[in-house]
Amino acid sequence: MDSFKQIEGGVCAAKGFKANGVHAGIKKNSEKKDLAIIYSESLCSVGAVYTQNKACGANITVSKEHLKDGKAKAVICNSGNANTCNRDGVEKAKEMCKLAADVLGIDEKDVAVASTGVIGVPLNIEPIQKNIKTLIDNLGHSKEHAQNAAAAIMTTDTFMKEIAYEFEIDGKIVHIGGMSKGSGMIHPNMATMLAFVTTDCNITSEMLQKALSEDVKSTYNMVSVDGDTSTNDMCVVLANGEAQNNIINKEDDNYKIFCKALNMVNTYLSKQMAKDGEGATKLIECEVINASDIKLARKIAKSVITSNLVKAAMFGCDMNWGRISCAIGYTEDADFDINKVSINVGSKYGEMNVYKDGYGVEFSEEEALKILKEDEIKITIDMNCGTSKAVAWGCDLTYDYVKINGSYRS
Amino acid sequence: MDSFKQIEGGVCAAKGFKANGVHAGIKKNSEKKDLAIIYSESLCSVGAVYTQNKACGANITVSKEHLKDGKAKAVICNSGNANTCNRDGVEKAKEMCKLAADVLGIDEKDVAVASTGVIGVPLNIEPIQKNIKTLIDNLGHSKEHAQNAAAAIMTTDTFMKEIAYEFEIDGKIVHIGGMSKGSGMIHPNMATMLAFVTTDCNITSEMLQKALSEDVKSTYNMVSVDGDTSTNDMCVVLANGEAQNNIINKEDDNYKIFCKALNMVNTYLSKQMAKDGEGATKLIECEVINASDIKLARKIAKSVITSNLVKAAMFGCDMNWGRISCAIGYTEDADFDINKVSINVGSKYGEMNVYKDGYGVEFSEEEALKILKEDEIKITIDMNCGTSKAVAWGCDLTYDYVKINGSYRS
């Protein structure tokens, strides 16, 4: 069977996973948590993808090194400081792993590290040294523990992002859950922003990596808040095998079921990140259908979702579809006939066709306004030249985006 | 000699060129001009580059057809309506050429047409029919006539953009002048926004096209206001030969002098467009030096100038250089060592080094604020891996950009 049931518990939903989050003092505001941990006593298979930004965070360098054997037991993550472009960055990222490993009594090579926050400010390691024992002594597998962790990785996010599902493989109940954070400098490229997924599925590192690498193409990599690809993007999936299904070591039906579950978690977290984009008031979903191939579909969906002009028009509830056709038209390295394209814009209120066969279609401004007043907008682009499709997620461009980013460091 | 003297007169600075601009009624506000013309009685060599957006304006289709012989006498341009994605767009663009040609008594194939404004609203041709005679009857070669034309091509621009130079070829005085408009949907790709350049230089169409195609790579194509490549971008250079220099028909020294003059005009107009980007309070110039090749230099300069996060930080006078190193790092298809890169940020007030060898450099926040309070900011990126360089121009991202584009159509 392949039915999936949404459950509570985020990264603690899967058997054998514990988590926690505390305020250590990296962020000034003592109400805000800034240090998170995820831990599995059983050694996990690991899949991971990282930012391709050349100015990558020190945590990326260290995590790549620690996870190259495809195995891990824990992830330590701080918010409030990206530990990027700092002379002592790698040293401090390693120190974070060692601090966690020592208290957990495990090998530091089995710890991945993630950091998010301002770039270029030296990371103060003291708050982590002082609070690592409290953090780990209070590890637990309740949904509250998962929420502590999800809260501790937030920066400008306005809400926590977590999800979990239960499904069956070989008659065994398997769980998968994840958490993520946005919400600016979000335009992942072949990698992703911070996302952590845990599962008790029994699967090899190789198959887990394959599943993740394929899945991010249609999930995290299809999100854009501002077109800026971060230095610290990272997604890690930990699978500890405690569900005791027969190990997944090839692309069989069980692998497909697992991929489906992974996709559901990643899709949910991706949409939440777009919805919580800095300053956003609206989630914009752009679906491209009937494209000649999936690469074209993805490129066009992302071109539209990334357009500042489309984003600003959505903020203003202005059905300025000319900006959508414009963004379709300037998609790089894309081969298609604009005169076959049709554009629909819709929401909970309803849907309307605004562009067909290369030209505008007359529509009621009043109805258009009612559609765009909703907080989730769906743009559907029919390429009429094939059968491939793709979805991208973004948000509107608002005064608050400018406000948040005009003074991020202060 | 190759000394260049800045003179008045814009597109009327070159011998034999006349221009004018009026309010015809395409824009509602009767204080705003919306119809412009440039005319040379002598047949001109023409160079032209166009947007590569697949959803291109009807004027682009018609101009390409009319200019394919490399010859023209006039350009007609309206603002207030892009005449793009309209079922009768091509018909109306042709009608605009015919209206101008009939009054001028020339062949409509010798008229280029440009349109700028909202996409997808049918163009009302009546105001043009009614005012074409007044427009042309009052053609003149004074600087006021050039200004009338420069004003009539503006949309959300806040000031006119025009420039002219005088220089010598073969002992003959040659003039070149141009005008352009921005100011949103500005991210030209292998083409340009609206820019019109006139010169009395004697040069073949072939050499003129070669000079222009090469020059836009380092001028208009290095400008970005919002990352959105317009449907109607177009740059036309008209050369009527009235300076009577020996015709330029090969890449000799005279060709180089002409290229230098063309570059000065196009560079000035490019910078003005960036400075007048929608909602902008600051011009941002990004110079990449010591790159391994010019393509890399251009890509990196443009990546930085296009970053929403860099733009918002500049608006907030926040020396958040991490966003600059981040934008350098995510430059697509770029091969370089981030650990060799050095970043300086400066203005009229002074300059400071903020990043060196892959790491941040300590600096005074007080001094940084004084640098960033100025209205022209220069970011210099030393790649330390070669001798090539490039400059890109952009502007800050402000509340007003969002305001202007949240309700452009209303």
UniProtKB/TrEMBL annotation, chains A, B:
Catalyzed reactions: L-glutamate + acetyl-CoA = N-acetyl-L-glutamate + CoA + H(+); N(2)-acetyl-L-ornithine + L-glutamate = N-acetyl-L-glutamate + L-ornithine
Broad enzyme group: transferase
Compartments (UniProt record): Cytoplasm
Entry annotated with the keyword Cytoplasm: yes
Pathway: Amino-acid biosynthesis; L-arginine biosynthesis; N(2)-acetyl-L-ornithine from L-glutamate: step 1/4; Amino-acid biosynthesis; L-arginine biosynthesis; L-ornithine and N-acetyl-L-glutamate from L-glutamate and N(2)-acetyl-L-ornithine (cyclic): step 1/1
InterPro entries: Arg_biosynth_ArgJ, ArgJ-like_dom_sf, ArgJ_beta_C
UniProt keyword terms in alphabetical order: Acyltransferase, Amino-acid biosynthesis, Arginine biosynthesis, Autocatalytic cleavage, Cytoplasm, Multifunctional enzyme, Transferase
TM segment ranges: none
Site (Involved in the stabilization of negative charge on the oxyanion by the formation of the oxyanion hole) location in chain: T116, G117
GO MF entries: L-glutamate N-acetyltransferase activity, acting on acetyl-L-ornithine as donor
Positions that bind substrate: T155, K181, T192, E278, N405, S410
Site positions for Cleavage: A191, T192
Active-site residues (renumbered): T192
Residue ranges the record marks as coiled coil: none
EC number: 2.3.1.35, 2.3.1.1
Quaternary structure and interacting proteins, as annotated: Heterotetramer of two alpha and two beta chains.
Stated role: Catalyzes two activities which are involved in the cyclic version of arginine biosynthesis: the synthesis of N-acetylglutamate from glutamate and acetyl-CoA as the acetyl donor, and of ornithine by transacetylation between N(2)-acetylornithine and glutamate.
Family: Belongs to the ArgJ family.
Cited PANTHER family: ARGININE BIOSYNTHESIS BIFUNCTIONAL PROTEIN ARGJ, ARGININE BIOSYNTHESIS BIFUNCTIONAL PROTEIN ARGJ, MITOCHONDRIAL
Protein name according to UniProt: Arginine biosynthesis bifunctional protein ArgJ
Provenance organism: Brachyspira innocens
Lineage summary: Bacteria, Pseudomonadati, Spirochaetota, Spirochaetia, Brachyspirales
